[in-house]
Design brief:
Layout (H helix, E strand, L loop, with lengths): L1 H4 L1 H9 L4 E3 L7 H8 L3 E6 L4 H6 L4 E5 L13 H11 L4 E4 L5 H9 L4 E3 L14 H9 L5 E3 L8 E3 L2 H6 L17
Parallel strand pairs: 1-2, 2-3, 3-4, 4-5
Antiparallel strand pairs: 6-7
Bound molecules: flavin mononucleotide.
Length: 185
Amino acid sequence: MVIASEPQLLTAAIAAKPALLSVSFGDDFSWVRRAHDAGIAAATQVGNLRAERAVEAGVDVLIARGAEAGGHGEPTVGTLPLLAAILDHLSVPVLAAGGVSSGRALAAVLAAGAAGAWLGTAFCACTETLLSDRACRALLSAQDTDTVSAPASSTSPRAIHGRRRSQNGCCATSSPTAGTATNRN
Ligand SMILES: Cc1cc2nc3c(=O)[nH]c(=O)nc-3n(C[C@H](O)[C@H](O)[C@H](O)COP(=O)(O)O)c2cc1C
């Protein structure tokens, strides 16, 4: 896990004194106490009801990260059913992540009980993006079936159709806004 192999990253994040620190996709929750000791709220992304462990560890905010989400993570449960299941079982504030990139989608997750939404892919095409022009164009012109889901071990678990599709061999369809734009070359 990165938090063990590169502890300086957590130290740097805490030193920056953010209002909220998010660390995800690991079983080590020792970072939560360090965040709290520094007066920083803790958040973590979860993809199933094993979220209970995070709450027991003191995480203040859960991010229900559904299968529609871009970037890394285990794409198993869709955003809305995941959000509903977590809200039914746990009492901390829950943000919805995965395929939220419009006012309509935000309204939907708020109506379902989310405290807010956690966006990723939508920021890939913002003014401050570090993506190449080509990657931005690919993201913005993608259609509804233009993303693929790849193995979690991949460096790009969800990407827009392209060379990675044949490299990874497994496909899933999703909103274009749920795809990462890491397929940039
Ligand atoms: C290009 C890209 C990189 C990401 N990198 C990380 C990361 O390093 N750590 C992390 O916890 N989540 C990462 N995410 C996931 C986001 O935090 C978020 O869960 C996801 O993007 C939400 O779904 P959306 O992409 O449909 O908005 C990344 C997402 C994208 C699109």
